[in-house]
Write a structure and sequence with these properties.
Endonuclease Iii, domain 2, DNA-binding, mainly alpha, elongated, Endonuclease III, domain 1, 2 domains
Amino acid sequence: MDKKEKVLEIIKRLDKIYPNVKTALNFNTPLDLLVATILSAQTTDVNVNKVTENLFKKYKTAYDYANASLEELEKDIKSINFYKNKAKYIKSLAKELIEKFNGEVPKTMEDLVSLPGVGRKTANIVLWNAFGINEGVAVDTHVKRLSKLLGLTENTDSDKIEQDLMKITPREYWGKLSHLLIMLGREICKAKSPQHKICPLNDICPSSGI
DNA sequence: AACTCGGGGCA
DNA sequence: TGCCCAGAGTT
């Protein structure tokens, strides 16, 4: 089974246990998701959803974030790690949305990654979940770890891993693959305690040991 | 490529 | 108490 066939098999199997997979971050609007995804860096989606439940009631548009003081925004996301950095990103990002994009969240990779605090991972999450656009593969720590464990990639650099995954995966599955691997990484193939026995990929995983 | 940012949950 | 967690920017 070559890598292209393997990816399709992985998607097929994971799709069965995670049907209609999508981001675990709660959101109503593209701006909500952009903010939530920035907040999610190096923390858990549970922590993010706890904060955004109230945050999104208070800040509904880019203008709301731009007009708020940095101190107030910091206070509203204080339970998130790196909250000072993230508050700064979100506030300046909101200004750029107003100046360059009429207050709307742009729908292209180029425009999204031009925003402060937004990298390819965040952009891919937003593009796929908010707009249904397959522009790339979202590579986070889970995808990074699993793509190597599964023998799909050998690189360690996130951008190279994304390129590798894009080459061997049909474009229509890029967004789905990202989230399937993230779910597998969170719930089954955990970094510290991989659950080989209940993993649907244990017979085709080089790292399974079963 | 290594380093910095660092709150909260859980063992 | 100590360790980890849906990254991105800077050096």
